[in-house]
Amino acid sequence: MKTLLLTTLVFAVSAVGFAETADEAAVKAAHYAYIEACKKGDASALVALFADGLQYSHSNTKLETKAEAIAALVKSKGNFEVHEQTIHVYGKAATIRAKVTAHNAAGDIPLTMLLVWVKNGNQWQMVERHTTRIPATPAK
Question: CA-CA distance, 10 to 103, in Å (whole number)?
């Protein structure tokens, strides 16, 4: 009986430890809104999601301002898929690390993406985005 009670308590505490916080859920929602806005080329949504001092860097080292990033995303309507992501919230700041596949004329490009978000009032806004190409695995 004690073992069953202890096991149940351990699982209950573990489940609480893995519960998503309100801020994690809000950051995740902002991230999904960003993905949708990119794919639709929705400038007004991107304006709201991006902080004024945004630094938007690409895997080719190109660095864009908020206005430049929005103009490029509206034109290209980002064609990419997010495969997995992890979210970490640190007070009024959060990071998202994700694996992404970008699709363009050159083909499918595997990337890692790091996003930094800050909480401005009640809204999470992106302040930094950086992607890095994942090197091809050599054939054996």
Answer: 44
Sheet containing 93-104: which strands, arranged edge to edge? 63-64, 50-57, 123-133, 107-120, 93-104, 80-90
Between CA 98 and CA 16 the distance in angstroms is: 24
pLDDT of 15-47, one tens digit each? 445 689 999 999 999 999 999 999 999 999 999
CA triple 110-118-50, angle to 5 deg: 65
Give the pLDDT confidence score for residue 133 in this predicted structure: 95
Positions of the chain with pLDDT under 70? 1-18, 138-140
All structural domains of the chain, each given as residue ranges with its CATH number in brackets, are 18-133 (3.10.450.50)
Q: What is the dihedral of CA 85, 82, 21, 53, to 10 degrees?
A: 100
Q: Cα dist. 39→2, 11, 49, 54, 103 in Å?
A: 54, 40, 14, 19, 12
DSSP state of 48: H
